[in-house]
Amino acid sequence: MKLLSGIGSVVLTFLAATGRVAVFAGSGLSHCFRPPFHGKQIIRQLIEVGFYCLPVVALTTLFSGMVLALQSYTGFARFSAESAVANVVVLSMTRELAPVLAGLMVAGRIGASMAAEIGTMRVTEQIDALSTLSTHPMKYLVVPRILAGLTMLPILVLIGDIIGVFGGYLVGVYRLGFNAVGYIEQSWSFVETLDVVSGLVKAGVFGFIVTLMGCYHGYMSRGGAQGVGIATTNAVVSSAILILVANYVITESFFSK
Amino acid sequence: MTKSSKITWRDVHLAFGPKQVLKGINLNVEKGESLVVIGGSGSGKSVLIKSVLGITKPDTGQVIVDDQDIVGCSARDREAVNAKIGMLFQGGALFDSISVWENVAFGLIQTGAARGSIARSRAIDVLGRVGLDKTVADLSPSELSGGMQKRVALARAIVNEPEIIFFDEPTTGLDPIMSDVINQLIVSCVRDLGATAVTITHDMASARTIADKVAMLYEGQIIWHAPVAQLDFPGNEFVEQFVHGRGEGPIQMTVRQ
Ligand SMILES: Nc1ncnc2c1ncn2[C@@H]1O[C@H](COP(=O)(O)OP(=O)(O)OP(=O)(O)O)[C@@H](O)[C@H]1O
Ligand SMILES: [Mg+2]
């Protein structure tokens, strides 16, 4: 009986939390389409997400592309399929690695700082102050961040795709002795539009998840510095889990035939 | 209730979880009147003010501003009411991501009342009235002392010349001379601008200067509400003890020795 009520209360808490996130997301999205728009805040967030995340995303995708080339070369040598390195790199970068790695890195880099900033504003009553100064906190704080996530992550991932393939190219050509032109040609002719597009769709969804979780946990934080700390952790952890789940769902919907 | 009443609380109850903070508040502030609310720490004075701004929602009862009940009103009505109100938060609640003058001019810029250099000069003007010179205008709020932050927050509350102004402990943390300057400023907001003011203070000298009427909040109810002239002979032993700051009396402080 105790076990049952325990499970029941966990399920109820989970459903309630899901409901609150859904309401928050719906309200955030609906405010995206209703004026006034805070252009300055939107630009600030676009820069924050797009520009300041570029180095981390570039580094992770570069090294992932390099290691992927090396791994698949040595692994595929077992059944004499070394020539497929370029194909493996371009396919896994565009479909999987660039969006997922970029999503996770941005969750750590941006999701956390959004939760901390908005959370601090909540506990120091700055969010209450906004509403007394003719400014809707959702429009001023949440909308710019969600828009930045939705638009900037696909751009970051597109850049990440190119850098990842370039990483594979570096290892393939300078370490494994592939022909430079041949490697590029092979990658280019093998990759399909759908591979790239599915990766960019993932990126948009992940960008939404990261910024939504950052804003939500910050917005709902309670109780001083400790509350803000909890909000930050929750934002990162929940983004990471949701990214991995969404990744599977999107892959399934694109490629299961 | 007279025809000119500006804010009325009618049987307002408000609880945080099991903790009942307001237990049937009945209070009326007339147009152009300056009311001072006194009461022990944690008695719910800040909550009382925030119930007008929609920051804390009463469980039952009515809060009437200009003949309109604003408990559970639509978001648009809420914005319209809040636009009439200036609020000095107890903790200041300055936006720490923007400069001092941008904080002060925030409401002006958001409502479109002024922008650019005009907004800036208005802000510097009002900063002057709270005793801050223009060298602080471009600093960040975190670079100011506690008392200076309080005065910036005060400037932000009055820059729009609102119809209703709430001051939550405006002189706490200020030296005696600056306190008097701020008291005079509040008096002039009421006299010159015709604003309706509700001030929370623990400073009896300040209460005598700025109040037309004084209300005392005790155990979730207004136990005394009278013109300031009666403060010395209130005919109420609770008020008497409070005003004279006596340890002995009907109000028992629960402290362990
Ligand atoms: N957001 C909140 N969540 C839970 N309880 C709260 C919240 N805000 C206020 N309270 C409780 O309500 C009571 C009244 O708080 P309030 O801030 O109005 O006190 P106050 O009269 O302004 O005191 P002070 O003079 O110290 O500022 C306190 O006991 C406080 O614990
Ligand atoms: Mg208070």
Total number of helical segments of chain B?
Answer: 9
CATH superfamily of the domain at 1-84 and 209-257 in chain B: P-loop containing nucleotide triphosphate hydrolases
By CATH, the architecture of the domain at 1-84 and 209-257 in chain B is named 3-Layer(aba) Sandwich
Terminal Cα separation of chain A, in Å?
A: 44 Å
Strand content of chain B: 25-35%
Number of strands of chain A: 0
Tell me the β content of chain A. Answer: under 5%
Write down the domain tally of chain A: 1
Measured between the Cα atoms of the first and last residue of chain B, the distance is: 46 Å
Could you describe the 3D structure shown?
The complex is a heterodimer of chains A (257) and B (257). Chain A is mainly alpha-helical. Chain A is 87% helix and 0% strand. Chain A is built from 8 helices and no strands. The model of chain A has no long low-confidence stretch (mean pLDDT 93). By secondary structure, chain B is an alpha/beta fold. Chain B has a domain of 133 residues: P-loop containing nucleotide triphosphate hydrolases (Rossmann fold, 3-Layer(aba) Sandwich), CATH 3.40.50.300. Chain B has 9 helices and 10 strands. Chain B has a 6-stranded mixed β-sheet with strand order 6-7-8-3-9-10, sandwiched between helices. Chains A and B meet through helix 3 and helix 4 of A and helix 2, strand 6 and helix 4 of B. The structure holds adenosine-5'-triphosphate and magnesium ion (MG). The site of magnesium ion (MG) has 4 residues of chain B, from helix 1.
